[in-house]
Amino acid sequence: MSVTGSRFMNLVRFKGLPILRQLHIEEQLLRTSSDNWCILNDGTNDPTIVMGVSGVPRELLEIGPVLRDEIPVIRRFTGGGTVVVDSGTVFVTLICSKDAVAGLQPYPRPIMSWSGHLYARVFQGVGDFNLRENDYVFGNCKFGGNAQSITKNRWIHHTSFLWDYDVRNMAYLKHPKRVPEYRLARNHLEFICRMKDYMPREVFIGKTVEALETQFSLRTIEFDALELDAKFSPSTKLLLRHELETMAFAS
Prior knowledge:
Helix content is 28%, strand content 27%. The chain has helices at 19-32, 57-60, 63-68, 108-122, 167-170, 188-191, 201-213, 241-250; strands spanning 8-16, 37-44, 48-51, 73-75, 83-85, 89-97, 129-132, 135-138, 141-150, 154-162, 217-220, 237-238. The protein is globular, with a radius of gyration of 18 Å. The protein starts with 7 loop residues before the first strand and ends with a helix.
């Protein structure tokens, strides 16, 4: 199934795969595979909140509205912040062995910097693209949020790109205590922007693949060909309603 060698990468493309299923696949590939992978998922069908591994719901979410509207809440296996994802979100995940990129030290800042250069190719001549702190931005407005996890021999860097978003969904998020310096005192809607105002969706996906081809020899893998272990137990979990209710009561 896989291509051998550090400069090869397997590409798996999805459309509308539920984000919980995507995260379970990513975690398994990080922990059980020795190959390099790119997962491209064009949207997830149902609005879902995804928190980092150390996220505290009562500090990050308006739990009352989340419960009222029955919005699923996931705690993923990587760090990073909290995001509401839906059909307007494009996901790109890179899972690599530590020697996959020549000269790249497997630590958060070097990986983040390398990814910034990679996406600079994608957005060359488009908007005022930059990597600011841990976000991808056009000017001062964020459109891509990142999360990472680094193990002994491998690392994962995954991004939620806001090609579009529903303003109503942003009301589920509280203003976090820790924010990037460049956010200043802006509320969420002043802080983010839509990629669709800068680039067509299919163009972005195509240019991302082209940028990866400057770094790796890509091989497309069909979902049915993925050798996944049904017994693998992921740490990424869907939070149960009674857990959120308990947290709401405690707050």
